[in-house]
Every structure is written in structure tokens, then in C-alpha cells.
UniProtKB/TrEMBL annotation:
Source taxonomy: unclassified sequences, metagenomes, ecological metagenomes
Organism: marine sediment metagenome
Annotated protein name in UniProt: Transmembrane protein
Keywords: Membrane, Transmembrane, Transmembrane helix
Transmembrane segment boundaries: 6-28
């Protein structure tokens, strides 16, 4: 291996470490955002006694509240 081989390897590892760190930060932020939205669905929207269950659709960001296996109320969460 020549004298610059270790420099190229070091640069590649620095880039890979940076990309890995950025991915972990993005995944953490995305996950906590989903948890916050689902908590809003559970505690603020479908908290009433008139609803039996809820489903939070994380793709469309819609909270569905159910009563007797029918959608009674739905709300878009920003």
C-alpha cells in the first residue's frame, strides 16, 4: 500500500461514520415525532368515553376513533 492509501481509507471511514450518525439522528427524530402524534390521538382526540378504540395511521397522519367497530370520528394531525 502506498503512502496515500491510509488517507483514502480514513476519509471513507469518516464519511461512513458521519452518514451513520446522521441516519441515527433522523431515525430518532422520526420515531419520537410518531410517538407524539399517536399520544395526541390517544389522549387528546379519542380520550372520550364514547369511543371504544383508536387507530393512528402514521402514513396519512389521521387519527380514527371507533365505536362498535365503526369509525365515528377522524381527524388529521399535523
Amino acid at each position: 500500500m502506498n503512502k496515500t492509501g491510509w488517507k483514502v481509507t480514513a476519509i471513507i471511514f469518516i464519511i461512513l461514520f458521519t452518514l451513520g450518525t446522521l441516519f441515527i439522528i433522523w431515525a430518532w427524530d422520526y420515531g419520537t415525532d410518531l410517538i407524539e402524534k399517536e399520544n395526541e390521538c390517544v389522549y387528546n382526540i379519542c380520550d372520550s368515553e364514547e369511543y371504544d378504540a383508536y387507530i393512528f395511521d402514521d402514513i396519512e397522519s389521521i387519527c380514527y376513533c371507533y365505536k362498535n367497530n365503526e369509525i365515528v370520528y377522524q381527524e388529521y394531525i399535523r
